[in-house]
Specification:
Blueprint: H1 32-44, E1 47-48, H2 49-57, H3 61-73, E2 77-81, E3 91-95, H4 97-107, H5 123-143, E4 149-156, E5 163-166, E6 175-178, E7 182-188, E8 194-201, H6 208-222, H7 226-237, E9 247-255, H8 258-270, E10 277-283, E11 286-287
Parallel strand pairs: 8-9, 9-10
Antiparallel strand pairs: 1-3, 2-3, 4-7, 5-6, 7-8, 10-11
Helix pairs in contact: 1-4, 2-3, 6-8
Length: about 290
Amino acid sequence: MRKKNLGIKGKTKRLNRFKAEPKKAPNLHIQKRDQEIIRSVHNYKFLTGEQINRLHFNTSMTAVNRRLLLLFHHGYLSRAFQPEILGRTPAIYYMDKKGYQVLEDAYGIEVGRPVRVKKDVTLQFLSHELAVSDFFIDLNHRHHGMRTREVLFWERTNSNINTRVIDKSQSKTTYIPVQPDGFYAVRDKRTGKVTFTFLEVDMGTMRLSRIRTKLIGYKNLVTGREVQRIVLSAMSRREIDLGQSKGGIKVLFVVTSPKRQENILSLAKASGMPNLVRARYLQNSSFIT
């Protein structure tokens, strides 16, 4: 198999894994694929080298890691590591300052508040973030080239979809925060119907009482006017016209065990929303939706 030219000149040996060393790193000329990698990291928020390989390279991880190491040392990407349990852990990439400039120059993307990662970041947090990224990678791969369905858009949690709703079960005015892990739309090419889905990636650590409150929040969101604002905002920002297409709203919980799936579906039924909520579990390293 012929090795792909990644545009790397010089050696990348003995560079610090944790601290950027731009003066020691070989020269780097930003190529089109580097711009695409940076844009993906921005969209997905957190990506491992293996995920970036699936998105942009499809080659050996040695070559991919070499390129990503240069983007890190030259300040385009930053990286963190999951707390070590057994042996060496892979790097997890997120945006750095020069990467934002690439987004503006190459794509005209104006970025708001940069992503920041605390030094004492937990394994639970990073595992959750990577699971969200993995879901959307899988979603896009499965729908690519499909004759019957297409992904219109997807986005990670952000200020456009995060909101709060009034808890109608309380006598006093009480608000429930609704902060999905993501939001996406899939169109059925045969009927034109568009399904908008709020994504919740559940790692099994949240108490069921909190899940119940979260479900109530989604129920009040979907039956109110706020959901219309979220949908219209998402479509207008991408200049997508629904036309006469009919739409539907769903909430998808991605879980890690059949038992958790059963519990969430039971809570949804008890909350009077069995047709709104779906729960699927991770099986064979692929999200089933």
